[in-house]
């Protein structure tokens, strides 16, 4: 019998059903790729305006060898009734969801930027005051509240995955099934850089606590809830390498001396979603090449 310690067993998501929000771009697409290439059935969820069908076609091509597959579903995750419809639609096709990756997110910077480490008081105040209240509301709706309603809406399907009878007294939870993985950010873990990310960072700090609150609430069913806190990763939100990127002076200061990439992000999700991570619950895992060790006060 093959040892359970072989990496292909330990990190297996073969046959898992996964839902990935924001799955047609950036980190969500990297995560969907990692899951599909390893044999999972993945629903990518995104705004109707996103390139969902294009991404579905690419992912289905990637899944040919492993048997992984993809379907796309439009949903604005800032809308509770759309989340309810999404969960109802997936419930009509699936008896369980093994992995919910609640990943969609936005960042809304103050329209008037400034160097927060050096700007005189009046300039700092003008920049911070330019932040729009509607931007705070949408940031929290997508970056925090959506994780809550998605987790609650999918709870019965996640619980069914955790309870899945695998024979010989083993349940889905023994393989890691029945987990919510929220994409937070290392911005929740540091306080000061030369740019103002206050609405974004506070929404992510709220997410970190939400991970613990929901993990505790769902613990009776062993539906695990974990968060990942990435550093810089190339995406639409953070076009690393593009001229004028507001973080460009910081990339070299990450101890890893590079941005994160799809191996870093997909690898972390495969760990947390599989047998390897089945004993990990209620934590946030920072995947930032060491950035938060040095981030405070960076110019
Ligand atoms: N890129 C980075 O450096 C970085 C670092 C830390 C954390 N993150 C987090 O990673 C996650 C993914 O962001 P990304 O960097 O890949 O950016 P991205 O802009 O490339 O992708 C975000 C995705 O979320 C979708 N989305 C936005 N609002 C939505 C809504 N209301 N309903 C449904 N989908 C919606 C977008 O359409 C898009 O597909 C976010 O939570 C972000 O905060 C990114």
Automatic annotation (TrEMBL):
Database matches in InterPro entries: NAD(P)-bd_dom_sf (IPR036291), Sc_DH/Rdtase_CS (IPR020904), SDR_fam (IPR002347), Sec_Metab_Biosynth_SDR (IPR052178)
Record keywords: Membrane, NADP, Oxidoreductase, Transmembrane, Transmembrane helix
PROSITE patterns registered for this protein in UniProt: ADH_SHORT (PS00061)
Pfam families hit by this protein: adh_short_C2
Transmembrane segments: 12-32
Electron transport is among the record's keywords: no
Keyword Hydrolase: no
Alphabetized PANTHER family for the sequence: 7-ALPHA-HYDROXYSTEROID DEHYDROGENASE, SHORT CHAIN DEHYDROGENASE_REDUCTASE FAMILY (AFU_ORTHOLOGUE AFUA_7G04540)
Family from the record: Belongs to the short-chain dehydrogenases/reductases (SDR) family.
Listed name of the protein: Short-chain dehydrogenase
The species this protein was found in: Aspergillus pseudodeflectus
